[in-house]
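User: Hey, quick favor. My workstation is busy. Could you predict this chain's structure for me?
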Amino acid sequence: MQGAGKTTVADVLARRLERAARVNSDALQELIVSGGRWPEDRVMSEEALRQLRLRLHNACLLARSFVAAGFTAVIDDIVIGARLDDLLKELKGQRCLFVMLTPRLEVVQERERGRGTRLWEQWGWMDDEIRTSTRRVGLWLDSSDQTAEETVDEILRRAWSEGWVDGQEPEV
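Assistant: No problem, here it is.
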């Protein structure tokens, strides 16, 4: 969710790997310079949903391109609830590592206060979506009490045995 540390962790992780690229989904969203619709709330407009799906599609296309060129691609995005099924559809035929950062909501709130924002008030529902409506695949990490570097250390230690998922059509 917002404030979980995913951008920082993705950047540290990519920098630790020999050949890696970080695919920043927010930057892909910002490529829409006219008519863009960021996710508004838990219930989004059809246009915001369509653009969110387009963003994930483009992130996966870019990641596949980097992988084909011999790089590890680290996608930085919020993938919760039904978006996990969308991700697995996009990666059909690919095996990848999936990491879900799950810091406690009060930790996210404190991080946001430290940034001078209060996004957790608008996006706090994501914590519930993660914990109750997101299939538990890959590696889930409570990074509440870790620095970004410690989180990356744990990812590198555990992801190869716990984080693998196969892109596929979602289960019905």
